[in-house]
Records
---
Amino acid sequence: MAFVLTHLVPGDPAVANLGDRASADPVAVRIYREHFGLDKPLPVQYFVYLGNLLHGDLGESEQSQRPVSTDLAEYIPATAELAITSIVLACLLGITLGVIAALNRNRLSDQIIRVVSLGGMSTPQFWLALVALYIFFYKLSWVPGSGRLDAIVLPPPHLTGLFTIDSLAAGQFDVFANSIQHLILPACVLAAFNMGLFTRFTRSAVLEVLENDYVRTARAKGLPELTVVFRHILRAASPPILTVVGLAFGNVMTGTVLVENIFSWPGIGQYSYRSATALDLPAIVGVMLFVAIVYILVNMVVDILYGIIDPRVQLA
Amino acid sequence: MTTLLSVRDLRVWLDTARGPLPIVDGVSFDISAGQVFGLAGESGSGKTITALALLGLLPAGARTGGSAILDGRDLMTMRTAQRRRTRGREVAMVFQDPMSSLHPMLTIERQLTEHLRYQLGMSRKEADERAVELLTEVRIPNPEAALRGHPHQFSGGMRQRIQIAIALACEPRLLVADEPTTALDVTVQAGILRLLHRLCQEKDLAVMLITHDLGVLSALADTVTVMYAGRVVESGPTAQVMGRSRHPYTRGLVDSLPHPEAADRALVPIAGEPAGPESRPAGCAFHPRCRYMEPPCATAVPPLIRIDDGREMACPVDPLVASLAR
Amino acid sequence: MQRRTTFLIATLSVLAVLLAACGTNGGSTGTTGKTLVVDDAYTWDFSKDTDPSRGGVDFDADPFFHAIYDSLLTFKLGDSSTPIPLVAQSYTVSPDAKTFTFIIRKDVKFADGTPLTAHDVEFTFNRLLNLHDNPVYLLDGITSMKATDDYTFVLTSSVPNPAIPFIVTNPALGIINSKLLMAHGGSDAANAATADSAHDFLGTTSVGSGPYTMASVSTSEVVLKANTNYWGPDKPNFGTVIFRNVAAATQLIEIQKASNQIELSLSGDQAASLKSNSALTVTSFTSPNITFAFCNIKTTPACANQHFVNAIRYGIDYQALVSVAGAGSAQAPGVVPTQFLGALTQAQAIQRDVTKAKSELQASGITNPTIQLDYTISSTGLNDSLAAKIKANLADVGITVNLNGQPSSIATPNYRGGKYHLGLAGWAPDYPDPNDYLAFLPGQLVGLRAGWPTGAAPDIEALGARAGSTPDNATRGPLFQQLQTLLNQESPMLPLIQPGQSVVGTKNLTNVIYSPVWYLDLASIGT
Ligand SMILES: Nc1ncnc2c1ncn2[C@@H]1O[C@H](COP(=O)(O)OP(=O)(O)O)[C@@H](O)[C@H]1O
Ligand SMILES: [Mg+2]
C-alpha cells in the first residue's frame, strides 16, 4: 500500500536526486536506475520489494546509499529517546495537572490549568521550539543548545543507541548529565501538545470517577488522600487516559519532524523529512513501515494494559 | 448503656446551583453502644447527608454547624487529619449500592486490607489473616479464594457482606449503614439485617441503620429517629415511635407499610411529594401534605418536645404536645 | 478538602521535573586542541558520500572534501581568478589548449604516510570517470589521463578547454590514496560503477592528503581532526572541526552564545539582525550562484517571439528583486557571475524600462498574454518572493503571470525535463570559469531546458564555441562579454540576480572568507 502510494507521486527520483549535470547524462541516469532497480516495470519492482521485505530487507536508501534498515537502526534510537521522554513527561505533567484540575473543579487552579493545557495544545510547535530555545538556552542558559550532546562530547559506546542509557551503562555520568540536559528541552517542547491533551482527558476521566461511590468508600476507610487519588481514582480513570496516551505516539511521530529539525536531533523525523523531499522511495516506505509497526505495538501494549488494569476486560 | 455519639443541632448547607441551601436543619440524636439506632424518612429527607456529615465526607463546598460528640471529642470541629483517623477506626460506613461501592478494578484483598495496613500498621500477612477472619465473620464462603477475586465475581448480597467486612476491619465503634438492603433482593435483605444485628450484639457495636423503609427498623432498631426535610419530626424507642406513632408523618409512613397479618389491606401512601431543600415550606415542612394541618403549622417551625412516654416529637397539633406546650 | 493533596501532588511533579533536569555541566571532551564548530543546514547526506568522487560538487559537502583531499591546483584565499600549485607544483598547457601536463610534488604524503604519486592522480581521475556519479561532468571531453612517470600527470581533451586548470581545483578531484582504497574495494576500472565497493570503507576512513582527516561521521555531524602527518607548511589552527547539521532558525539563536563557531545557513535578514552583536562578525558575500528566468520556447510558443521575451526582459524590476533577496545580493548582468572571467559589468546590466517593455509587447502582436511561472518552493521562501515580484512587474506591462511553485521533488524533474513555461531556476558554478556557462547556449544543458535546440541561434552558438576554446584568457574574457551581450538581446535567458550569502562567525575568527568553489577553507580559519 505504502509502496504504491509513494510511487504515485509525480517526479522521477533519478532526475530529482542526481546533480544538475549528471541528471542530463544518460549513462549516470542509467547507472542510478539500475542500482535502485528503477529500470524494471512497476509491478516487478513491487514484487521484488515484497520478496526482499520477507527477508527483512527494506532496500537501499537512494539518499544515503545504505540499506534502509541500517539507516533506521541509526535514526530510531534518537527518536525513541526523544519520543519516550516526551511522552513520559507529558504523562507526568498532564496526568498530575488533570487530577489537580478535577479535584479542584471550577476553582482558580482548575482555570489556570485549563489555560495552560489549552496553551500547550494550541501553540505551534515550531514557534514553541524556537521560543523555548531562545529563553532557556540563550537568555537563561539553563540548557545547552541543539544536538544530542555538546559538540565536544563523544557519544557513549553503542549499546541501545539511547545516549542516556548507554552512558549510564558505561558509567559515564558526565555524558549522562549532558545527554539529559540536551534531551530535556526538545522533549518538553514535543510534550507540550500531549501534556495539554492528557490534562484534559485526565480531568474529565477523573471527574467521572469522582462521582462513583467507591471513591467515597475509599475515603470512608480513612485512607490518606494521596492513596485515594492514586490507587483508587487514577486506577479507575486510567483506561481512557491510556487510550489517549496510545494515540499520542502518533502525534509525537509527526511532531518529531519539526522538533528534530530545530534541535538538530538526528532522528526519524529528520530522516523522513529528507527522504520525502528527495523522493527517496525505499526510505519513505521504510519509515512508513516503522510507524505502522509502532502503531501496532502500541495498540497491542494498550490492549494488554487494559486487561491488567481492569479485570473485567477479557483478553480476546 | 452508655451514649457513644451525641449529635446536637447538626446543620449542613450544601452548595447548589442556587447557592448554599440548608439540607440538614438542626438534627439531634444519641447513639449507644451495642444498640441499633434507626434513622428513617422518605428519600430526600437528608439522612445520607447527616451520615456523611458525621464522617466528614460531605461534597465539596459543604458547610456544617452543630456538634457530634464522640468520646468527648467533637467530630465536627476536628482537624482534617485527625478526622481522617476516626474514619474506619471509630466510625465506619456501609453504602447503599454494593454494585458501585466497591472498586471494580481492585482485588477484594486490596480493598479489605489496605486500611488495615495503613490504619493499624499491619504487615501484609497479618492483614491477610485478618481479612480471612473478617470474611468468615460476614459468612463469605471460601474466604481465601474470595480474597483473590474482584467485585464483579460476587452477587449483590455477597458484595454487601464484603462491604460490611471492609467497614468492620478496623473495629470501629460506630457502623453507619446507609440503606444497606435497599438495592438487594428481599430474600437477601433479611440475611444482611441479621448479620448487622448479630455484629451489633457480639461486638458491642453501635449501628446507625439508615432507611426509608420503616419495616426494616421495626424488628431491628432499639431507637428510631424520623426525619422530614432535614429536620427530626419524631424520635424515641422503636416500640413507641413505630408501634404507637403520633406524628402525622410517622403515621403516614407506618400506614404505607405492607402489613404482615393483613396483606390484602390497601396501602395508604402519603399524599403529595416530599419537599425538596430548595422549596421547603415555612413552618412545619410537612404541613402542605398533612391532614391535620392548622394555621400555626404554616408559620412557625414546631420545636421538638419530649413527651412522657420517652419520645420526642415536633407537631403543635398533637394534643399531647399542645398540652405540654401550654 | 484537597488543598494538601493538591500541594503534595504539585510538589512531587515539580521535584520530578527538577530531578530530570538536574545534572552538572560539562562532559568528557574527546578532543584535543581547539575546536571549531561549523553549522550548516545541509541536505547532503554525510552518511551517503564521504567519497569525493561520488558526493563531490555539492555545496554542503565541498568544504569538508576540500579540507581532507588536496587537489592538483588550488586558489589563493579570496582570489578565485588564478589557479595556483598545490599537489602539482607546476603545470603547462599546450598552445591548442588540449593537453595539460602537471608536475607532481615529491613531498606530498597521504594521512597514513604513503607518498602521493602521479599514479594516485590517475587512479582518482579514472575512478571518478568510471563511477559515473554526480561529479563525472568535470571530466567532460577528456580523452586521456595518464601518469607518464611517478611525478608527471597528463590530461588530454578532445576540444580546446582552457578551463581545465580551474576544474582540477574542485574538491571532487581531490587526490585519493589509491593503494589504500584498492585494498578496501576501490576500483578505477571501466566497470567501477558496479565493481567499486569502497563505499562502506570511505564511510569510516578518509584517504586524502589534506590538512584534516575524518574522525567520525554521523547523521548529525561530521568530526574532522587535524592530519598529524600533514605535508604542507601550514598546520591547521584548529585541532578539531565539527561540522553540524543545524536548522537556520536554530543557528540564529546558538551563534549568540558560541565561541569558535561559524553559521553558514542564515538568511540575509537573519544575518542582518546580528549586525549589532559585537561578539560576532557578519559577512555578506555576493554568491556566484545565478538566479535566472527563462522563457521556454517548446512549452510556450510565444517565447520564440523576441519582442515578447524582451517585453519580459524590460518589464522585470531587477533592483526590486535585489532588495527582495537581501544583504549581499546583486543584479546578475549576464549568465556569468560577476566574480568570474568574462563577466559583464553592472553598467551593462539590463535596466527596467516599462515603456520599452510595453512597446515590445505591442510589437510582438500578442494581446493579453498569460504565462505560467514555474519554480521550486525554496525553504527560505526566496523563490516565492521573487516570483511574486515578477508577477507584479509583468502585470505593469500587461502580461498576466500565473504562479506555479512546487516542492523540489516535483519541480526539479519538471525543470530538468524542459516542462517549465516561464521558469525561475538557479545555477551554481561547477568550476569558477566562464566555460561552465556555455551550458546556457542552444542545445546545451540549460538551453534545452528552455526549449532552445541546437541551431536556434547560430550566431550565438558560433561565438560560444569560439569563446570556450580560446586558450588565452585575455581574449577569452572579452569574447564571453560579447556572448553575454548577445544573450541579453536575443535569447530566452533572463539573468536576474546573484543572491547574497551571509556567513556569521564569532569575532575571534579570522580568514572566514568565501570561496565560490569550496565555500569555506576550514584549514585556513584562524583565531
Ligand atoms: N451533592 C449534593 N449537592 C446538592 N444537593 C444535594 C447533594 N446531595 C444531596 N443533596 C440534596 O440533599 C437532600 C438530602 O439528600 P439525602 O441526604 O441524600 O437524602 P436521603 O434522606 O434520601 O438520604 C436531597 O434533597 C438532595 O437533593
Ligand atoms: Mg440516602
---
Amino acid sequence: MAERALGPARPRRAGVDAALSYAVSVAVAFAAVGVFLAAMGFDVPRAYGTILFTSFRTANGFAQTLLKFVPLLLLTLAFVVPLAAWKFNIGGEGQLIAGAIGAGAAGIVLPGLPAIALIPLGMLAGIAGGALWAALPAWLLYRFGINEILTTVLMNFVSFGALDYVTTEVWPDPAAGHPTSVPIAVGARLPLLLASPPLHAGLVVALAVAAATHVYVNRTTGGYELRAVGANPRAALLHGIAVRRLSLLALVLGGALAGLAGALEVAGVHHRLIEGVQSNYLLLSILIGLIAKGNLIAVPPVAFAIAVLDVGARAMQRTMQIPVEVVFVVEGLILIFVLLSDVVRRR
Amino acid sequence: MLRAGQPGGAPPLEMRGVRKAFGPVVALDAADFHLREREIHGLLGGNGAGKTTLMNILYGLYRPDAGEVLVGGRPAQIRSPRDALGHGIGMVHQHFLQIESFTVAHNVVLGTPSSRGLRLDLSGAEERIRTLAARFGLDVDPRALVAELPIGARQRVEILKALYRDARILILDEPTTNLTPQEVDALFGSLRAMVDEGISVVFITHKIREALNVCDRVSVMRAGRRVLSVEGREASDEVLVRALVGEDVDVRRSLLFSDERAARPTPAGRPALRVEGLSVTSPQGAPALRDCSLVVREGEVLGIAGVAGNGQRELVEALMGVRAAAGGRVWLDGTELTGAEAARVLAAGVAYIPEDRLQDGFLPKADVAQNLILGFHRRPPYGRGPWLDWPAVYDAARRLIAEYRIRTPGPHEAAVNLSGGNIQRVMLARAFSHPCRVLIAHNPTRGLDVPSTEFVYTKLLELREAGAGILLISEDLDELLLLSDRIAVVYRGQIVGTLPRPAFDRYALGRLMSGVADGG
Ligand SMILES: Nc1ncnc2c1ncn2[C@@H]1O[C@H](COP(=O)(O)OP(=O)(O)OP(=O)(O)O)[C@@H](O)[C@H]1O
Ligand SMILES: [Mg+2]
C-alpha cells in the first residue's frame, strides 16, 4: 500500500534513492509498453515523442496541460489528505461535481454582484458544496463506523443525478445538444493569466492551496495528529488524539478540496455547468496520489507529469490512431514499479 | 535433500560467519551459531544484539551479506520461508501476524499446498491440528476465531502452524514476553514434548531464569556476534550476565541482584491519584472491573499484581479516558478526572507506558522522533500554538536517543526498523521525557534486556524520589516486590487484597492472584 511520507524532509540520501527509483520505474514502464507497440507495427519513437513533447511544443499544448493540471492537483489533494489519516476518499468526482454545482449556482443566481464579490463567493460555494458532499459519508463513519470507501463512491452516483437534474431541469440551456446549464455571469468568471491561449488564474489558486495543504499536514500539530491517526489509531487515541473527530475532519477537508476543483472548472474553463465536468480526473488523481505515495511534496510534480502524458496521449490518438489507453497502461506500470521498488529495497 | 520428519530427529544446524548490515547499521558481524540435535537452545542477548536478525536469516526472510548456513552438514540455500520449511525450519515471530477474522484451522492451513485448491478441506486439517495439539500439549480449539483468542492461545496457533508444516527445527522469538506464568510453564512442557519427539528448538528470551530452567544449552549474543555458548547445567546467572553486558560491569552491585527488599520508609505524601468505586463493563456486557478503589500517594509505588486478563487493561483504559466507566470516580491531585478524555488526563500530569507497545503506543510508519513526541506534541517545546517545531523535536529526539540508548542510526530512521526492545525504550523515553504527577506503567520492562531493565527500575525509583505517584501494573512478581511500596492484587476484576511492603510474601501474593485466599 501507499506509504505515507511523514514529517519534514528526510536526509538527502533517501531523496536521491526515491528519485532514482522513480526514474527507473518510468523508464522500464515506457520500455515495456514500447516493445508491445513496436511488435504491433507502430512507430514507437514518434508515438513517444508525441506523448512526451506535445505539451512543450506549442503554447497551446502547454496551456492545455496546465488546465488539466489544476483539477488533477486539487483532486489528488482531496485523495491524499484523508489518506494521511488512512481514510480512503474515493468520492472526489462527486465532490467535484457538488462544488461545480455550488459555484455554478452562485454564478447563475447572483448575476448582479460585482466580480470582486462574486468570484470569491463562487469559490466558497464550491468549497462548501464539496465539503457537504463528503460530510455525509464522514458523518456515517463518525456516528456508525460505516466504511467510507463504499459511501464516498456511492455519493459519486448521487452527484451524477444531481448534475443531470440541474442541467436539464433547473437551469437548462435548450440551445445546447448536451445537458448543459445556462452560462454563469461574466462577473463570476475567473480572470485570465494569459488571453491566448486562454489560461485562467485558478492555477495560482491551486498551487497556493497545495502549498497550504503541505504546511498543514507537515508543519502543524493538527497535521501530525492526522498522520498519527493514519499510522495507528489506537495508539493515537491512547495518547490524547480525538481519532474519530479527526477522521471526520479529514474527509470533509478532502471534499472541500475537490469542491474547489469543481468551482475552478466552472468559473475558469467551462463558464457553465456541463455534464462530464469530472472527466477521468478521479481515476488519474488516485493514480497520482499512489505514485506519489501520499507525499505532498511529490504530488504537484507527479500531477504535472500525468497531465503531460494525458495531453500527449490524446494528441497521439488524433495523429497516429494509437488508442489513449496505451498511456493508462504505462501509468499503471509506473505505479506498480514504484511500489515494487519499495519491496525490493526492504530486503 | 534432507527431508524433515525423518525418524531420528532434526538434523543439526550450523551458521558460519554471518554478516548482515542494514545501511549503516551492522546488525550481525561474523556471527556463528550451532544447533545440535534434540536440544532446546536458549539465545540471549541485549536489545539490538541481532538475535531476531540472525533467526530471520535462518528462516529466509533476510539474505546474509556474507556467511553460510549448513543443515545436516551440507550447505543450504535458504531464500524464503518456504525454503526454510523445506529444510524443516519453522519460526514463531516476536510480533506475529494472524488473520483475525479466520478460524484457527484456517490460519494454520493458509499457504500450505492443500489450501491452494478451489475448495478447502478444513475438517481434515482440524483433525490433524487436534492430534498435534494433543501430542504436544498445545491446547487450542481449531474452530475458534483467532480474534477471540488471548495472546497465549494465538501463540500456540503459531507453533501449530510450524508443526503442521512438519517443522523439525522450531525458532521461538521471545515467546514468553506476553505470557502469564502458568502459560510459560505450559509452553515449557510443550517444548520438552517436542524435544522428546526429536524436534530441536531455538528459544530467544531476555529472562535468564527461564533460560536456565529449560534450556539444554545457552548462547549469548552481543553487538552482532555470538560471544558464549554453554551447557545448561554449567550455566549460571553470573556467567550469563557477564557475557550479556561485558566484563566491565560489576554484576554484584546491580539493583537487579540486590536483595534489599527490606525496609523503606513508608511514603506518607498526599494522594496523587485517587480512584473510588471504578467499574468497567466489557463490550460483551460482563463486568471487567468491579468497584475498584485505590490511592497512589506522592512518592509511592503502588504495584498491581495479577494474572493478565483480570481487569488490568480495563483499569488502565478507564484511567486514560479511552473507555467509559460504568461507575466510579477518579481524582488527580484533587482535580476530578472522571470521564475525562485522554488529552485532558495527559495534560493533567499523567504519563503512560502502554502494555502492548505495538498496538497501544507505536507509529510504525513514522520516524523515531515522531514516535517520541506522541501525546506531548501539543506542549512546548514541541508544539507552539498550531505549529510543530520540528527542529526542537529532532533536537529533543537526539537527546532522548542518547540518554535511553535507543539503538538506531538517528531520529529520522523509520521506527519499523527498531528491534523489539528498542521500541520499548522509545515508549520509556517518551513517558519519562516530561515531568509528571502520576506515571501509569503497564509491564514497563517487557522485552527489555538486563541492563535496560535495571535502567528502568532506576528511573522509576528516581521518579518516586521526586515525589510522583507510580501505578505499576506488572505480571512480573520480582519486579513488583523490588519496586513497590504496596502491592494490590486483582482477581476477576476486583482488588482482593493489598499488602504493605513489610508484609510482602511471594506465596501470599500467589494465593491472592489465584483467588484462593482473602487478603487483608
Ligand atoms: N529491517 C531493518 N532495517 C534497519 N535496521 C534493522 C532492521 N532490522 C533490524 N535492524 C537493526 O539491527 C539491529 C539488530 O536488530 P534485531 O532485531 O536483530 O535485535 P534483537 O537482538 O532481536 O533485539 P530485541 O531483543 O530488542 O528484539 C538493531 O540495531 C536494529 O535496529
Ligand atoms: Mg528481537
---
Amino acid sequence: MEEKVRIVSEEETLFEGHAHELPFRESAIKQKSLELFDEEDPCILHRSFVFEALGDEVLEALDELGNDVARLDAHEAFAKIDIEAVEATISRC
Amino acid sequence: MIYLDYAATTPPSETVIEAVTQTLRDYPGNPSSFHRPGREAKKRYQQAKRHIATLLGTIPERIFFTGSGSEATALALKGHPFTPGETILTTTVEHHATLHTLEQLKKNGIRVRTLPCDHEGFLPEETLEAALAEERTGMLSLVHANNEIGTLQDLKALGDLAHAHDVKVHADMVQSPLHMQLALDEMPVDYASFSAHKFFGPKGIGILYARDVNELTPLIDGGGQEHGLRSGTENLPYIVGLEKALAEAVEALTPREAAIRRLAKRFLWRLEASTLEYNLNGPPLEKPRLWNILNIGFKGVDPQRLAYKLDRHDIAVSLGSACSGDTIERSHVLEAIKAPRSHGALRFSLSHHESEEDIDDVVEVLQRLLL
Ligand SMILES: Cc1ncc(COP(=O)(O)O)c(C=O)c1O
C-alpha cells in the first residue's frame, strides 16, 4: 500500500517519503480542498484527505509519464509540490 | 458504491421521501391556525404523533419533536431543573451531544461525574452503585447503544438502580430504534433522545421523550408549540417522514436485523479467514451489542490513509477519530475502552441493504490495500 517517492537535485535528496507527505503548496491544498469539500480552510482531518489526494496525483502522474525518473517540471501535478530546485527529478523509491 | 456508514446517517427510504414530499404539497397550513388548511395540518400532526407514540410504546403527551438528536439531549440536560449541589452522572463513552452539553452545564456550576466503562464499553453496575452512594445525584445520562463500538448498555438494570436512588435517567437512544422494539413507558427512563436520520428518516428532525413535561424548561420560547417546550412552527413534512421511517423500522425489524446479523458474522468470518491482523473494538458478537456497528482496528495501519483508499474504491466507512483544532484526535470512546493504539480503527456500519458479495468485496479490497 505504501508508495514512496524521492526528489533529487544535483545529487542531493530533497525529499524521500510517502507521496502524501510531500510538502504541497498552500495554494494547491486550498484548490484541492475547494474541489473536494468546497472548503477553503479545511479542518485537519479534511486536510489530511487533501494530502492523500495530492499524493495520489503525483503517483498517477509518474505512472502516466511512464519513466522511472521524471523532471519536476514535467507534469502539473509536480508543480503543486513546494520544492524549488534546479534540474530536480522525482522517482518512486 | 458500498456504503458502510449507516451509524453516521441512513439514506431516507423512497417511501419516506414520498411521504415528505406529499406532506409538503398537501399540508401547506400552519398547525396553529384555526382555518381549514391549519386544521388539516394540525390533524395530520396529531395523527403522526399518536402513531409515533404507539410505535415507541408510550403516549403522545410524552413525545416532543426537536430539530435533531443533539437538540433532544440538550433539552433534557439543560431543561431539567437540577437543584444546587446535584451531580449528573455520565460515562466516558457518550456521544459529543451529551459530553459537550455537560461541559456547558459544568461552566454553569453543575457537577458532572464521568464514570469509567470497561474495555468493551459497558458501564458496570457496581461503578454506578458506588457513584450513586457517594454523590447526591440528580440524573444519570447514558448512551443506550453506542454509536462507535455498538455496546448496548443494560438500561433496565442501570436505570432501575438509578431510580432506586430517586435519580432521573436520560437515555441517548439515537442508535436504538432500528435494532429493537422499544416500549418506553416500561423502561426505567425519564428522558430519551431520538433522531430520524438514524433510521432511514429525514435529517433535522428528532424526538425528546419526556415522562413529565412539567419539569422541563424550554430552550426556545415563542409560540408555545410542543406543549411550550419547543417553540417554532412544526416541521410537519419531516414529522411525517419520521413517522413513516419509524413505522417501517418497527414493521421490518426482524428481517432487517436477521440480514444485518448474517452480514456482520460474514464480515468477521471473512476477516478471520484473511491474512489481515485486526481486532474488534467493543463487545464480541455474543455480548449485548448492535450488530451493525463493527469497529475494526488494523495493526500498524494509518486509519486516515485506509479510509481515503477505501473511498477511492467507492467504499464509504467512518474514522475512529475527529479533528480537534490542529490535531487529529483518536476517538474518546476508543481511548475510554483502551483500544490498542497499535491498531488504526475504522467503523464499518452495516444495514440490511448490503449483500454478502458486498461484504466479500470489502474484505478483498482491504486485503489488497493492506498487503
Ligand atoms: C448516539 C448518538 N447520539 C446523538 C447523536 C446526534 O444526533 P443528531 O445528528 O440528530 O444531532 C448521534 C448522531 O451522530 C448519535 O449517534
